[in-house]
Write a structure and sequence with these properties.
Order of helices and strands: EEEHEEEHEHHEHEHEHEHHHHHH
Number of strands: 11
Largest sheet: 8 strands, parallel, barrel
Structural class: alpha/beta
Shape: globular
């Protein structure tokens, strides 16, 4: 198949391949690295607290930072009540966001306990109020990222998605797992297809896409308008380029990096983009996934995880790469 642009309201996403919002991972450093390799048509920030956002700025919060490379970009809001929406959206607009996403799928216990993330799928009236308040507050494209829910109920999922559409959402992204599934069972792609048949707005599929072949299968089996990729893109930041080249030859060139060079580039961007107190923790989180590129990746992960400084982690990683050359 050949990739076709996705339109979310007036936002063109071409190619229709999207970097997922991931806490502690989808910051400006990873987004810059992905952008350098090409093939990603839309970037998401990690989830941002609607309560905290109005008092933050790119200078004070590294999670609000970005570069012109990382465009278009959607800012994801973690919101529990409609009263939190207006000021948070105003901040996003002042930062030049190209769209806004409402997080209705995060399964973290503390977030759900506070009424955010997937808790909103148990409170459809509150979720509707949040969507309507968001739609009233902005003309930017508005998306919602959801899961299947707490327990499997097609009627409940159907009604929730129709509510999102009727309340002003411009696209729905479905990660087809239940709250308790986590990543323990395969994503149920058939529900992406069912929601695509149900809605008139674009539907984005998310879950278990880790190769060009998997991306092609998701498009073909579900009819989805776009594919969102999360942890597989942390392991292989060049994955979007591979998919774009596989499904639409000529979009990007066919040169793929040596993983060691990509890791070193991540460190360089990290040093140039973040204050020192953030660099080592963010490198450790990145390495947890990136190390899966190697047969003995657990060694790379252990070396970086046990390092007491970014400089030490860099030296240890370079020694590891020399041993695998």
């Amino acid at each position: 198949m050949k990739l076709k642009p996705l339109y979310i309201k007036n936002l063109k996403v071409d190619p229709p391949l999207i970097l997922a919002p991931m806490s502690g991972l989808t910051h400006t450093v990873l987004r810059q690295l992905v952008a350098e390799f090409g093939g990603c048509g839309l970037f998401y920030t990690e989830m941002l607290s609607a309560r905290a956002l109005p008092s933050e700025s790119p200078d004070s919060s590294p999670w609000l930072r970005g570069t012109p490379q990382e465009r278009p970009i959607v800012y994801q809001l973690l919101v529990s009540h409609p009263e939190e929406v207006a000021a948070a959206i105003a901040k996003i607009e002042s930062c030049g966001g190209d769209g806004i996403d409402l997080n209705m799928g995060c399964t973290t216990a503390l977030i759900a306990k506070r009424g955010g993330g997937i808790a909103l799928m148990k409170k459809p009236k509150r979720a509707e109020a949040i969507v309507r308040s968001s739609r009233k507050a902005t003309n930017l494209p508005l998306t919602a990222k959801i899961r299947l829910g707490w327990t499997m109920s097609w009627n409940g999922l159907r009604d929730f998605c129709l509510m999102l559409q009727d309340s002003g959402v411009d696209a729905v992204c479905l990660h087809p797992r239940l709250k308790e599934d986590r990543l323990k069972r395969p994503a149920r792609w058939e529900y992406i297809g069912k929601i695509k048949e149900l809605l008139d707005i674009p539907v984005i599929g998310n879950g278990d896409v880790n190769s060009p072949q998997a991306a092609n299968r998701m498009f073909e089996l579900t009819g989805c308008d776009g594919v969102m990729i999360g942890r597989a893109a942390v392991k292989s930041p060049w994955l979007f380029r591979q998919i774009a080249n596989s499904l639409s030859p000529g979009v990007c060139d066919n040169n793929y990096p040596d993983p060691a060079d990509a890791f070193k580039r991540f460190i360089l961007i990290l040093e140039n983009s973040m204050e020192p107190e953030y660099t080592l923790p963010l490198l450790k989180r990145f390495t947890f996934y990136f190390s899966q590129n190697y047969a003995f990746g657990h060694t790379l992960w252990t070396l970086v995880h046990n390092a007491d400084s970014l400089a030490t982690a860099t030296v240890m990683a370079n020694e590891f790469f020399q041993g695998t050359a």
